[in-house]
Design goal:
The protein has twelve helices and 18 strands. By secondary structure, the chain is of the alpha+beta class. The chain folds into three domains: 115 residues, Schlafen, AAA domain (Methyltransferase, Cobalt-precorrin-4 Transmethylase, Domain 2, 2-Layer Sandwich), CATH 3.30.950.30; 69 residues, no CATH class; 182 residues, Heat Shock Protein 90. β4 and β5 form a beta hairpin. α1 packs across α2, α8 packs antiparallel against α9 and α9 runs antiparallel to α12.
């Protein structure tokens, strides 16, 4: 290996002297598919050996456990030559990528050099990872000024006297960064500043900054003049903002073209037997539509690119389409959610969004209640499907 020189999968070091730079090299190799770092070889590919192989091994173990996220299990070989010189080889596997350094920086390896990943490269790495951890990834390019402090502190104050003590803030002002990072776990401390995570920005970000930094969080809402997506489009709108804004905007768009009821009326409008020149608006249960909109926002697979959440309104039905990886979810997960067994991609985001302190009046009961409301209101079951990395639910109106 040494004779071949450094390449994308091999890094040579004379000694271990700077743990921060070694952590960066490990992260870069892990994010690029793995490789080996050999300690005790100089730039001329000559084996000089290390003075204390055991201490090098101990330091590598520490770096892999404390300087890299997620933690890495080090595979280390100590190799002795006939002349008494010893080298240490660290074998790196990237099974849980993307990896980052302790200060929140993502590196990749190009040839024999490392560099920080660009936004598109990081997005590609996240697409390959399990979507469970996406909500905890720091948002590249964001900062604490992107947080809507009024919204955040109205949420925090709901816990006054229990989890939160405002009296302790005397003389400290409003430590937004500290609360986001250490109280709510919605921010990540980098070497320069505290950066909101994906969940933090979606929940409490300023609308315009959420739109700019997380464009895939937008919702596309469309009203069709007919019963399928091939019908003429009456209106198509892109709904933007944080989750609070998106939820309210989605319900307003639906209410623009449909009537929402808290319970089934004895007689629906247009059922008096008189022919009207204009077709009556479709009627839906408010709780069912509200629950579906909330579920779409908190259970989106945001690691999937170019697949926005869509709301399609037809003359007599509404379909909500959400990005959701079907691998490992359908059909077993699709059955489980009908019984109220959660299959959450973003548990932290979902917990805060559904908390009354967040400021939304949400229906309770989850998907089973949603299905029951929809069926008893329209006498037709809501249809649920999961395919092509999409979760679809269709309601039928009256």
């Amino acid at each position: 290996m040494v004779r071949g020189g450094e390449d994308t999968f091999l890094e040579l070091k004379v000694k271990l002297s700077n743990s921060e730079k070694i952590a960066q090299e490990i992260v870069a190799l892990a994010n690029t598919g793995g490789g080996v770092i050999v300690f005790g070889v100089n730039d001329q590919l000559r084996v000089e050996g290390v003075d204390d192989a055991e201490s090098v091994q101990d330091e590598l173990v520490r770096i892999c456990r404390e300087e890299i996220t997620p933690q890495m299990v080090p595979l280390i070989d100590r190799i002795a030559f006939d002349n008494g010189r010893r080298v240490v080889a660290l074998d790196i596997e990237g099974k849980r990528r993307p990896y980052r350094t302790r200060d929140g920086r993502f590196y990749i390896r190009i040839g024999s050099e490392k560099r920080e990943a660009t936004r598109s490269e990081l997005s590609a790495l996240l697409d390959e990872s399990r979507p469970l951890g996406y909500e905890n990834v720091p948002v590249i390019g964001s900062e604490m000024s992107d947080v809507d402090e009024a919204h955040l502190w109205s949420f925090v104050r709901e816990f006054e006297g229990d989890a939160f003590d405002e009296a302790s803030l005397t003389g400290k002002g409003y430590p937004t960064a500290d609360v986001m990072e250490n109280h709510l776990l919605l921010a990540f401390k980098s070497s320069i500043d505290v950066v909101p995570t994906v969940a933090g920005l979606l929940l409490f970000g300023r609308d315009e900054r959420v739109t700019e930094l997380l464009p895939r969080s937008n919702i596309v809402a469309t009203r069709f003049a007919g019963e399928n997506a091939q019908s003429p489009v009456i209106e198509r709108a892109q709904l933007t903002g944080n989750l609070h804004t998106l939820y309210e905007s989605a319900l307003k768009f639906v209410a623009r073209y449909c009537d929402l009821w808290d319970e089934r009326p004895r007689k629906f409008p247009g059922e008096d037997g008189v022919d009207a020149p204009v077709m009556a608006r479709a009627n839906y249960h408010r709780g069912a539509i509200s629950e579906a909109a909330a579920n779409a926002l908190v259970h989106r697979d945001l690691a999937l690119r170019e697949q926005p959440t869509r709301i399609l309104i037809f003359d007599r039905s509404i379909e909500i389409i959400n990005p959701r990886r079907t691998a490992g979810f359908a059909p077993s997960g699709l059955k489980a959610i009908r019984y109220g067994i959660p299959q959450r991609l973003n548990p932290q985001l979902a917990a805060i969004f559904s908390n009354p302190a967040y400021g939304l009046k949400l229906p309770q009961g989850g998907l089973p209640t949603l299905l029951r409301f929809a069926r008893t209101f329209s006498n037709r079951r809501a249809e649920i499907h999961a395919f092509n990395d999409e979760f679809r639910i269709r309601f039928y109106g009256r």
